[in-house]
Fold:
Amino acid sequence: MSSAVILLHPDDNVVVCRRTVIAGERISIEGSMDVIASTSVEIGHKLARFALPQFSKVIKYGAPIGSMTRAAEPGDWIHLHNMKSDYMSAHTRAVIGDEP
Amino acid sequence: MIANGYLRSDGRKGIRNVLIVTYLVECAHHVARRIVELSADSQVHLVGFPGCYPNDYALRMMKALTTHPNVGGVLLLSLGCEGFNREDLAKHVAGSGRGIDTVVIQQSGGTRSAIEHGLAAVKRIKSQMDDAAVRTPFYFSDLVVGTICGGSDGTSGITANPAVGRAFDRLVAAGATCIFEETGEMIGCEGPMGERATTPEIAVAIRASIAKAESYYRAMGFGSFAPGNAEGGLSSQEEKSAGAYVKSGHMPIVGVIKPAEIPPSPGLYLLDIVPDGVPKFGFPNISDNAEIVELMACGAHVTLFTTGRGSVVGSAIAPVIKVTGNPDTYRRMSEDMDVDAGRVLEGLADLDQVADEIVELVKIVATGAETKSEELGHREFILTYKTFEPSGPSCFPR
Structure:
């Protein structure tokens, strides 16, 4: 229970923060190499476990939850700025009305 | 036996004995609200339908809600000229043996006299309800529990939702009826969900309900995904779906029902909340309470509400138990939260311990103990227009 993150499924390429992690913090992940958090990331958000190329699937719960819109390095925050749904667009207050 | 229930004429049992003051058009809302306020009784609740145009779904929903097992009496508030069929509704309630009265504001002579008439009627119905109350042992087999999530974040799908799923497993095993819904938030989960169906027909109904949800939400232009979901770390509809789906636990799915359809026997049901036909009246459920209202119309005595960001709502008619999966939210809003599933993230509890705690709380609430939202006076209610075709026989257990 000492790790700052949870690996939900062995196939996942992202991990979920159990608490807020700080930029530069070394994160140990069950069953794989440590990563360094490249930015501070809040509880419940995701970090890349491996390098994720553009267009690759993001895997969480052992299932695809979207695709990378740009590449990410291990320890990068994975969210709307670098991934998107394969089903329908997510919206935030900033982008309401901007979506097609 | 888990509690001392209220026996109703249809054989169902309530865990509360509430009088609902029901406005049948927005024009009667103020008078209805004043009657509830001046009654100053925590067991007199306000519900209503705002529209003037008639709607079969709204009438069906109101018939189901006014005869909900937690409801012992009903006061209808009509302006007088609206489209809602108040006579049909009143006849339905009277047929159930409940105390019922109707105040028509235009016939009462205006606001003040309608409030006076309404207050007198509340007093009369209340004393009738208290005299007529039949107390009877309430078992798990009498219990209907619903679940929804609201204000989900990246913690919901790994703490609160799987804990509720395990609580559902325990409740179904004990003989209760459990209902999960939010088909718009199950998009992408239809494959594994169909495999849990007890008959091939139910599997077809499950997959059809999710396909309908996807095309409906696509037409609306937005999925069931709020800005707060993204702020809480969820990045896509399918990520939210995977987290929402685990609320259903692991039991077989014995039926697919629609709002205001009562599960005919215990077990786990999927509630299909997306309207049938071409999109007509807008978003399926415009906010969390619309979902709670539909669960209640299917007979839910209590709703397990999981939240990451921190919802504060409760409900008229049936108590809401709020389970937060986010330990920071629990600390910030503990006065609103009944269960802290965030302890799972902190290593202070496991999912089974939280599930046991939820089941215990359901039992305690069934005995009459108030949830946090009941204590705080939350009695939210919302009902809007929809269109549904009745479910066919193949959607129910054989």
In short: The two ends of chain B are 27 Å apart (CA to CA). Chain B has two domains: 18-132, 140-395. The mean pLDDT of chain B is 95.
